[in-house]
Amino acid sequence: MGISCVADNTPWWAEDQPSYVSDPSDPNYGKCVGYTAVPGGVHCSGSYPTTQRLCRCDTPSSSIRTFGTGLAGSEITTEEVWIYSHFVAAGDVGVMTHFWTTYETKTDDGVVIRYYIDGEQSPSIEFTPSLACGVGFYDSTGPWGTQWFGKGANDGAWFNNFRIPFQKSIVVTAQHKYETHPNFYIIVRGATNVPISVGGVTLPTNAKMNLFTTSGIFEPLEWIDIVDIDSGAGVHWMHSLQVASGNMNFLEGCYHGYFNGNTEFPGVLLSTGTEDYFDSAWYFNAGEYHLPVSGFTHLSGNGSVNWSAYRFHEMDPLWFDDGFKFVWRNGDLLDPAGIKCMMESGGSIAGSPTQSNVTAYAWVYTW
User: Fold this and answer.
1) Superfamily assignment of 66-194 in CATH?
2) Which DSSP state fits 89?
């Protein structure tokens, strides 16, 4: 570029870099700085009074371009480690389209993947690969899969094809909560300017995917707010649920949806029990399944119960334009006529639900 400078290989540390320090009053005068370990490209709006940018500025394009990376035979540690980042030119939109990872089965408990969208300091998407695939308690059953996610091997091989949009940048990291493990592999991939549709409707280009995570111990008949959005538009896209309980009577609990500021009970009754929300019946008496819309993915326990399932709303979206609540109950009530799910209090208890340890994911697009 016609610049003669002293090379300073200190890793990138500021938004105005890579740059040439052109002002003699600056202690770094004459140096080229911040050109190593650049985090996947930076926006050209960054500046500093004593420097000149050395920056490749992409212009917006309507074309679709693929980006991504893979990491083979590494290790996952207790430190959060950068896996990949990508920036798009102003006017373009990026969409993550594929995620895959594999490791030994014993590694599964503790793996955390984070997506930082558009410069977030706290990630709006943070997940365990197995539960992102609707599988609780690190069930290693495989292979199985749908168009959206699955498991392709006995050890690891979790994948998903969730469409995760961003307007400026994406940063993907990996971490293990407990200890270092070898033989960690990961692939992430995306594209620019790929439209996202749900139920045949194309989402606005400013749509954002949010992962709502709920985890805790809940008493019998306690309400669990899985999604609680005060205002704004969007669509609830996918939900997975993991429950450890004293018996199966937590399945009597019903799902309720509260749309567009309406908080009057019962809202929209989304199920008459837990198993019918997941497209089954009679406490899943046909056994486990992995279907395109829904799945019953794990059942174990001797006396107590460990259970998990998933449900997509891609074919029957839950749209909202001014706030949304998605609520589940740990067990439920019967009114005097024996009708379930229509009472907030009173009546009689269906079965004998116990205290339950619950983890829930809900993937929701908002704009």
Assistant:
1) Protein of unknown function DUF2961 (2.60.120.1390)
2) -
Tokens representing residue 207 in the block: 């749509």
Would you say 322 and 260 are in contact if contact means Cβ atoms under 8 Å apart? yes
Closest CA relative to residue 125, chosen from 234, 215, 239, 212: 212
* Domain boundaries of the chain, sorted by first residue: 1-57, 66-194, 201-366
N- to C-terminal Cα separation, the chain: 42
* Percent share of the chain, pLDDT over 70: 96
Mean pLDDT, to the nearest integer, of 227-236? 97
Taking only the tens place, the pLDDT of each residue in 56-84 is 555 556 789 999 999 999 999 999 999 99
Strands 268-269 and 289-290, sheet pairing: unpaired
**DSSP bridge partners of 7:** 32
Buried b (16+ CB within 10 A) or exposed e, 276-288: ebbebeeebeeee
Q: What is the pTM of this model?
A: 0.84
Give the CATH architecture of domain 201-366: Sandwich (2.60)
Measured in residues, the chain has a length of 367
